[in-house]
Amino acid sequence: MSMRSNFTAPGRSIHYYTVEWDESKLSWEDFRGKVLGPTDPKDAPKDSLRGKVLADWKTLGLKSEPNVGDNGVHASASPFEGLAERMNWLETPCRRDAYCKALVRAGVREATIKAWSVDPQVKIETDKKGSLFDALEDMDASACIEKAKKLQSLQ
Questions:
Q1: What is the DSSP code (8-state) at residue 13?
Q2: Which of 52, 126, 141, 143 is geometrically suited to a Cys-Cys bond with 79, CB 3.0 to 4.6 A?
């Protein structure tokens, strides 16, 4: 959350887009890896968003060449992490978010979603704890919901 102040301080702004697609045609993992490109723009394919930002950073009016820490574009590591980022960065109430509503309809409690929005260590197996975000990383929306239900039952 300390990074948040760099983007929410007076005079700063966050520009964001919410995108949707058919998960049978594009996986979350491919969206992040192929459409956006790797976190390090120097490793990104030229036709990925990060590859294009790296190639055109001067024309785009950026102050410096993109790098691992400031690579021009961010995508959440999972649909759940996207929800958490909207809740934490944009102060979107859970009940006003379409993905939160889908989780609640599937049986994940809103209190659990809120508690999980800060990436806690949770039981990921009966006798093992780990990062919630890591447990859901690169999952498509429907698989992420099913995994969240399973993780909730372990807590």
A1: -
A2: 141
Residue type, 108: V
List the chain domain ranges.
Answer: 23-75, 79-154
> What single-letter amino acid sits at 116?
W
**What pTM did the predictor assign?**
0.86
Query: Tens digits of per-residue pLDDT, 23-62?
Result: 999 999 999 999 999 999 999 999 999 999 999 999 999 9
Query: Residue with structure tokens 């001067």?
Result: 58
